[in-house]
Amino acid sequence: MYVASALLYMVVLRLISGSIELTVAGLMYKTQDLEKALALNSMLALVGPCVLIITTGLGVAGLGDKISFQKILCLFGGILLILLSLKMK
After folding, report:
1. What are φ and ψ of residue 65, in 5° steps?
2. Is the pTM of this model over 0.85?
3. Domain spans, the chain
């Protein structure tokens, strides 16, 4: 995968993710209902980590020959720790 195409995919994915976030924020405001807002927010909790993993994967794929396997493991290990910390109380 070329670096330019990986970067383009990452940018587009982040734009889509941001658009989803803004749309849900507007829906929360429009409904004026705390329970519905909380349900919408819960759905967003799935979007964020998925976008994080996919964009990081695209970036690593684009730089695959430029970074070492140890750095790739550390990067995905860090993502795993972030996701685990979100699940902790």
Report:
1. -85, -5
2. no
3. 3-87
Identity of residue 77: G
Q: Which residues of 30-43 are buried (b: 16+ CB within 10 A; e: fewer)?
A: eeeeeeebeebeee
Alpha-carbon torsion (16, 17, 20, 25), positive or negative: negative
Report the greatest alpha carbon distance in the chain: 50
8 A C-beta contact, residue 61 and residue 7: no
At 9, which amino acid appears? Y
Q: Which residues contact 30 (CB under 8 A, 6 or more apart)?
A: none
Using one digit for the tens of pLDDT, what is the confidence trace for 48-78? Answer: 888 988 998 898 888 877 888 898 889 889 8
- Find out whether 23 and 80 touch, Cβ atoms under 8 Å: no
In whole angstroms, give the CA distance from residue 76 to residue 41: 25
